[in-house]
Amino acid sequence: MSEAKRRGKVAVMxxxxxxxxFAGSAGYAILLYHSIDPxxxxxxxxxxxxRAQMAFLKGQGYVVSSLRPLYRHIxxxxxxxxxTVFLTFDDxxxxxxxxxxxxxxxxxxxxxxxxxxxxVGASTDWYHRDSKGMLPNxxxxxxxxxxxxxxxxxxxxxxxxxxxxxxxxxxxxxRQEILTSKKVLEDRIQQPALVFCHPYGDANNAxxxxxxxxxxxxxxxxxxxxFRVGDDPFKIKRMDCxxxxxxxxxEAVLAVDLCLQGTYPSFIRFKRGLAKLGLADKRFExxxxxxxxxxxxxxx
Length: 300
Ligand SMILES: [Zn+2]
Hints:
By secondary structure, the chain is an alpha/beta fold. The protein has a single domain (3-267), classed as Alpha-Beta Barrel (TIM Barrel), CATH 3.20.20.370. It is 44% helix and 13% strand. Strands 1, 4, 5, 6 and 7 form a 5-stranded parallel sheet that branches. A 3-stranded parallel sheet has the order 8-9-10, covered by helices on one side. Strands 2-3 form a two-stranded parallel ribbon. Strand 8 (195-197), helix 8 (205-213) and strand 9 form a beta-alpha-beta unit. Helix 2 (47-59) runs parallel beside helix 4 (95-107). The longest helix has 21 residues, at 3-23. It is globular and about 50 Å long. 46% of the residues are buried. Residues 288-298 have low confidence and may be disordered. Bound molecules: zinc ion. Zinc ion binds at residues 90-91, 159, 163, 199, 299-300.
C-alpha cells in the first residue's frame, strides 16, 4: 500500500473513532482473531501489530481476558468489570501457541480459543476447500500445546468437530458435530465447555435448540457488534478485527479503538462500499459480514 493510501485509510479510521466517541457506545468488545502471522491477508494479524494492539489496550487501562467473566455473568449475573475487552481466536491455529500465547503471556492476558476438535494436530483443510484457494492451509494446535496453554490460563471452547456448515447437515449429524466437540474437549482438558461457536457463523433455530439441549449456556453466531448486558447469550456478537488488512501499528491500534467505540462494523461496511466502487482494496469487497457467509465460505 502506498504511503498516501495508508494515510488516507488512517484518516478515515480516525474519523470513525471520533464519531464513535461522539455517539457513545455501551457494551463490551469481543475481538475475534484467527492467524497471528506476518502475511498481509484476510484473517491474519502480524505478530508485531498484535503486540501493538495489546500494548494499546494496556495503556488505555483495559483488562484483556478470555470469555470467563462473560460465562460468570451469564450463569449468575456477576457484573463484568467495566473496562474489560474479550479476546477470542477461532479454529485453534498452531500460531496461536507460537505467537499469540507468547505475546499474551508477556502482558498477563488470557483469551478463549474455539477449537475444531476433530482437526487437532492436523490442518485447516476446509480453508482451501471453502475459500476457493484464497487462504492457505494452516497447521492446527496439538493436544500437548492445548494442554500447556490451558494450564497457563487460556480458555478452550468448541467450534464443532469438523467445521461444517451446520445448517446444511441432517439433524443427527448436526447434533453429533456439536455434542462430539463438547465431549472431546471436556475429556481432554477437564474444563466445562460452556459456549459453542458456530463455524462460519452458520446458525439457525435448529442449531440453537441443539446447542441448548447439549447444555451450553451460550453460543456465538456471526453478527458483528458489542455484547451488551441483557443481550441473548445464544447470539453473542463479536468483531473480527483481522478483516482489516492492517499493515502499520497506527492502523492496528485504530482497528481496536473502533471495536471499543462500536463503530467497527460501520467502518467495514464503508470500506466494502468503497471497494465495490474500485476505491479501496478489492479484498474488502470479499468481506461479507452477515449476508452471504454461506456462499463465500470464509473461516469464521
Ligand atoms: Zn472457524
